[in-house]
Write a structure and sequence with these properties.
Chain lengths: 201, 201
């Protein structure tokens, strides 16, 4: 398969690439790294990316960031950062991707643990993750031409332990291999509309 | 208790009011109906509403609308309608409400069935609902002064059968009483961070 992996340079993206690159042609995409550069916050940049890749069999997204901070001090603008920089770019990858994904292909998005096992200050992230999980569930029944759509929702990664030091105490830190299996299942498997939770391993 | 019910004129809001009005003082709020008028899409209108009500013990929200339509034809702007008119107004009710809800009080938001049992054309609604469910889960751990926050996620209401005729075939249509029990449990109960699903009854 020919597979676009957006956010391929991040911890989750690297886990996805490792799981798929031995068997497939990967086009890695990042803001400043990878085979192609794209700014997912800009829909024109998404369109340019697809024009560059041409037809593919799968699109994997492992991007997104947002605001962390106490809810009582949170502004609406801070709340919306996760919507604008994690939810909407991944939704736009789908909305703009229909003409570029071959029949029977798939979209795989990334949400995360914080809408089921939150940490302090994660209300905005929980909303963005929940939106992604809800989106793939409902989008799946609308997919044309046998296209599938799923979401990988990993626990915090072992690879991100230092970066998030202290924020995820008590959370199991999952391996690249465990996260990679979920992306493999999403891309190479048969399910659709699923939230593939990676809780252990 | 003194309870604000926003969207009190809608099907879900009416079910909430019916369940609570015998035991509590209800301040009903609607765009064009109710004890107070407010436009929840406008944060200044939310602030004016709270200044008018003064301190309360609970805030119940039963508002929201969005775009329904085939995903392949959906624009990003259409997708975002549910975010801007269902998710963000309810989040703003919380963000702006901290100074007005008494210690130990509660916020109760409304999501819906479409992020777990979608119908065709409901991808945007599924995202908005999932965001609300994820938000309350994560927001609950950030709540100060013993405040609680939950979300009622009802199946389609019997009261809305004619309005949505044909769209929810095969879905159980829940009664006002069943929906009202969930709001009662959210407001008068003790749980927090929960999605109170109303599937039958």
């Amino acid at each position: 398969m020919k597979i676009i992996v957006v956010g391929a340079g991040g911890a989750v993206g690297q886990a996805a690439v490792k799981a798929l690159e031995a068997r497939h042609e990967i086009i890695s995409v990042g803001r400043n790294s990878g085979d192609l550069h794209a700014d997912l916050d800009d829909v024109d940049s998404i369109r340019a990316m697809y024009r560059e890749t041409g037809k593919v069999d799968a699109v994997v997204s492992a991007i997104g960031h947002g605001h962390f901070g106490a809810l009582e001090q949170m502004t609406a603008e801070q709340f919306m950062l996760g919507i604008h920089h994690k939810l909407l770019p991944q939704v736009n990858l789908v909305l703009e991707g229909f003409d570029y994904v071959n029949d029977g292909g798939s979209f795989t998005l990334t949400s995360g643990v914080l809408n089921r096992d939150p940490i302090r200050g994660s209300a905005a992230a929980g909303a963005a993750n929940g939106a992604l999980d809800g989106f793939v569930c409902a989008a799946a029944v609308d997919m044309p031409r046998g296209l599938r759509i799923n979401c990988v929702s990993p626990e915090v990664l072992e690879a991100s332990r230092e970066r998030y030091d202290g924020f995820f105490n008590g959370h199991y830190h999952v391996s690249d291999e465990a996260v990679g299996l979920a992306f493999s299942r999403a891309v190479e498997g048969c399910q659709t509309g699923q939230v593939l939770i990676v809780e252990f391993g």
